[in-house]
Specification:
Elements lengths: L5 E8 L7 H14 L3 E4 L4 E9 L4 H4 L3 E7 L2 E8 L10 E10 L2 H8 L7 H9 L7 E16 L5 E13 L2 E13 L4 H15 L2 E2 L4 H5 L2
Antiparallel strand pairs: 1-6, 1-9, 1-10, 2-7, 3-4, 3-7, 4-5, 5-6, 7-8, 8-9
Amino acid sequence: MAKIPVEDEYKLLWPTAPGTPARRLAAIRPLVEQAGLSLRVAGPPALQVDVYFDDEAGSLLAAGMSFRLRKTPGRRLITLKMGHTSPPHAHGRFQRQEAEAEVSPAEARTLLRGGEITAAPFFLLRQVAPSVGPLHPVARVTNRRQVAILENAARGQAELALDRVTYEVDGMRRGPEIEVEIENHRLGRQELRALGRRLEKELGRTPSRGSKYERAMR
């Protein structure tokens, strides 16, 4: 089996966040710059809609895994996330194996009807979790995401996402929540950790104790 990339990110909930993405960025920018990083906004906020799948027993949720179909303007992606290479959710830090692939509209419709497809993340799911039953949609997470790129002097990078998230499960809607994600691309791990702690301390954020799928299903 090919090596599966590991996602390394911090997730922080921001209960007192300002009301607009621009004001949230304005609050974060000086803290990022104090950490020795530049901040570059990567376009306007964009809508993404995630449908999470599980079997009748909730096997993926119980195993700390997730499988989702994400729709953004012009694209559909499936993503399998699994495992933790550090203590789960320690101080809002998430390290998980992640397999992702773009799928066609027809493949997306097949998944939503409870069918199976041949795309690599779905195939991998069946390999690593053969006891998981037929999958069906269990949660819908709607997110308006503002993305910015963080960069240090050595051109190491991280992606900062400001998410306004709502959850829908069994016809019941909750939210919105504001979540900050910092995904490491080429920053040092200690640099990423220091930035996460700085944002947590200065802006009163709370480290996330669960993924979006885990929070949707609470």
